[in-house]
Amino acid sequence: MTEAKVVLASVSLVPIKVIKTLPCSYKIPDPLPWAQLVGPLAAAEDALARLDERLAKSPIRDGAISRTHFTDACASLWLDGELVHLDDLVLHDAGMDVRAPTHELTRAHAVLRARRRIADAKPEWALSATGLTSLRGRGEREQETSNRKGGEGSLEVDDDVEREEVDLEGPIGVLETDAHLTAAFDAVDAANARAERRLADETRFRPDRDSLVYDPDWDEEGRLDHWRAVVDQTRCLPPSLAGAIAADAWGEIEPLEHTPWLGRLLAAALLRDRGKTRWHLPCLHAGLKNIPRERRRPRDVAARLVVQLEAMTAAAESGRKDHDRWLMTRNLLARKLAGRRATSNLPALLDYVLTRPIVSAGMIAAELGITPRAAQNLVAELGLREATGRGRYRAWGVL
Fold this sequence. Notes:
mainly alpha, 17 helices, about 400 residues, three-stranded antiparallel sheet
């Protein structure tokens, strides 16, 4: 017993230290290591300009951009160590899943929707306060909160009063209603008022975020302000270097706790806002995927910026090669449209198949307004490549 008391006493004297979160900060190197950056910077600027100029006058620009959205969304999950098949993402986006969607597939679809939203909006929208709030998913929540606060005054009714006083003095000529019916309506109104008060009290004291999912010490607003300050310091720098600094700063500051992929989308939006890419949204996730894993996260800031610039170059070169291949495939398939009647659905099928990595009979039927059997007949006439090789859930596509 004596030894046990000694052990307990020694344990109780151990001081407990609370580990505090380290403050996050990011500083742009001053002066910038131009000797290391000038080569990758020139290559990134040239590759992005070439791809953008190629897409400016391309007849398949919309289709190529739509396909790259899917590729970049899958690459974003690949960088986090999660595998999402491109076919599953396409079918999930069309609402024709082969199996129950996984958590990774849902996240990839969120990246896909965010890319589409940024690409369809104005160049400066994503980096504005409204755009960041919307992309964070806080706009609808804040709107609901403001509506709830605005309606609290109208829901405050005295608990002791079960029925509200009803003005029985109606306009002249209106017939008097039954007293029992009026009392019944008053009782229903009082019950609705009590239910609304109860719901308002529950939502008023309900926290916006669950502490089990979100860290209460994670200051998103402060980190976002710090990241915006870093982006503002890049006004006088070349667009590609500014995008590389924005992407690297997002990875170091980590403004959002659960959406690390948003930083590269915002860096791509920065390139579009600065006028470097006017016709497309760069696929920085897909470009970074081509960089070897051991080179993606060096400790040196200059080396990290070089990696980001090389990712832009790889993404632009890969996009240009894919565009040329899809354009050649379209020209080959367009030869089969010669001599077709004016009401044929084959031209519409060709345009649609270029916007998706794969298409199924159900997707074609929903897009063209025909039956799945007719969709399979059109696929056979056009000679599309079989992508799945299965009897069920068949899909086709072009390389």
